[in-house]
Amino acid sequence: MNLNTSNHRQVLRIYLELGGSALIMTSIIISEWLRLLVEEMVQGVKFKETEVMKRTVAFYWLSQRSCDGSSYRPVENLNWWEHLSELKDTAWDNKAIKDIRYDVLLDEEYPILSVYEEFDSAFMRHIDDKNKRVTDYMDDYVGDDSGRLAKSSAYAFFPNEGIVGRIGGSSTSRSVSPLERALARYWPLETGMKWNVAPVVTIDSLERFREEVKGLSSLHAKFTTKQTLSSIPNEGGTAGEYCQKLANEIGADIDVDVKISISNDSVFSMPRKRFKLSVSDFVPFVAGQGKKMSVSGVDFADKLLELNLVEHPVTEQEEIVISKGETHQFTNLIKHLVTVCEQQEENLYRITRERQS
Fold it and tell me: Which residue spans traverse the membrane (predicted)?
């Protein structure tokens, strides 16, 4: 049994900070520790009865641009309920573009375009653990051409600001090409204009790093040194100056990609606080180059806080919990997409308005 969980360590930290001398406090600590252990055992049993899958919801801005790229027009408040209803009523044969088939769902909080990309199942193999054998996947379908396999994804259309949320059945591919093809086919624009699909991007402010982060556990930075003839100390604090000194000794600017984390993260908060203090000049220096500057730590309520201090796409990765024996139905994916979109809607509108101002 693992005793080194965050809850157990928090109890131990409280105990140690109080000095661990009072007998009554020892009794309270042990009682609390036992309660946490029981909770962990119960959660372990529940976990075995469920399967947890992670899928990412990504968000995109729709806009219209001229074919020569010289001008853009925002897509504001199109009635996607109406547009997708028209597609839903379209004949079956007209809902396919080459090897991609489209469908529409109108019984959720958002109108949803579902996408099914056919893939070639030739030479696929099936690992049969029950019978301890590997067979050709298509053996069971010889002579049956009634159906084909397809990768699934779905797009939820927001009512305002031309925002679309996407989720995929695969945990890797995030291509929006099927959406671009559907927009061009089913909702064509006037001559000389075309649809544009771009990621919603944002940036976490340095003010949040300074004011909300209590202590750091790790950081990931990418930057390029800048040689100078000046004797003025270089920007970036101790870490930045070290890299610049190395570049000067080499005689050329260098690209730096560094990951730093506290080894065996301590139950005490002091190392995290010292870590933040030691990179307080380094973080804004790297963020200013706009390549990579992300940090992970805790806020003043000791909750996990992760910040990405350069412009980055807005995505939300959440867990999909499926009960033991339950099939991986497409409806699970749709409900997950809708839930995340509802949670992020106001934040996405805020980001869009800030970018337009």
Answer: 12-34
Task: Report the 10 Å Cβ neighbour count for 230.
Answer: 6
Q: Which of 276, 293, 310 is the last residue of a domain?
A: 310
Q: What percent of the chain has pLDDT over 90?
A: 41
Residue type, 92: W
Task: Specify the number of domains making up the chain.
Answer: 3
Q: Are residues 157 and 302 in the same domain?
A: no
Distance of CA 187 to the CA centre of its chain: 29
What proportions of the chain, in percent to the nearest 5, are helix, strand and coil?
Answer: 35, 30, 35
Q: Which residues contact 178 (CB under 8 A, 6 or more apart)?
A: 100, 102, 115, 117, 153
Flag whether 161 is in a domain: yes
In a domain, 347, yes or no: yes
Note whether 233 and 151 are same-domain residues.
Answer: no
* Cβ atoms within 10 Å of 337's Cβ, excluding its own: 24
pLDDT digits (tens, 9 = 90+) for 90-119: 999 999 999 899 999 999 999 999 999 987
For the cut 90, the answer to whether the pLDDT of residue 83 exceeds it is: yes
Query: How would you classify residue 263: left for phi > 0, otherwise alpha for psi between -120 and 50, otherwise beta?
Result: beta
**Domain membership of residue 220 as a residue range:** 206-310
